[in-house]
Amino acid sequence: MTVAKNIADLRKAANMTQLDLASRLNYSDKAVSKWERGESLPDVATLKTIADTFSVTVDYLLQEEHLQEEAISQQYSKRQHRNHALIAAMSSVLVWLIATFVFVNIDLISKDFHRHWLIFVYAVPVTAIVLLVFNSIWGRRKLNFLIISIEVWSLLAAVYLTALPYNLWLIFFIGIPAQIIICLWAGLRLK
User: Tens digit of pLDDT for each residue in 133-145?
Assistant: First the structure.
């Protein structure tokens, strides 16, 4: 029962379903369910693969008591999550620093150009791209759809504001099917 409890706890801590774990291990979700109920045990090779999947040792799966290791693992996970968030935030702020630098330089060089404020409008979709990249690497998949939606609508707004004298308000109709595609894409179940 110790192995069963440990597998179930690790799977839940990783926000995985039994089907997710089963597909990673090339087993059925019924096999994972039996392991977690203690009705059967995975073979040694599969135990090693499970341990590698959750970045623990096989001993961890076999031990009943591992509070200290668990606390260290959770502390490392929190620190890693915090560092990832800080890196993404610094990169986003860097986009705005560059936009501010370009804005100031254009303002100093050319007093005739009055639409250089658009630099900040275009910084929004660029920031969304930066966040999308970091979220794709370290974040949650579902958050990508929100970021992509922000990307689409901010890019459309930037194009509209750039072409403001031409009153291209119909450009926002492009966002409707794009948003529908994003919503449908979010509903797909991928491995």
Answer: 999 888 788 899 9
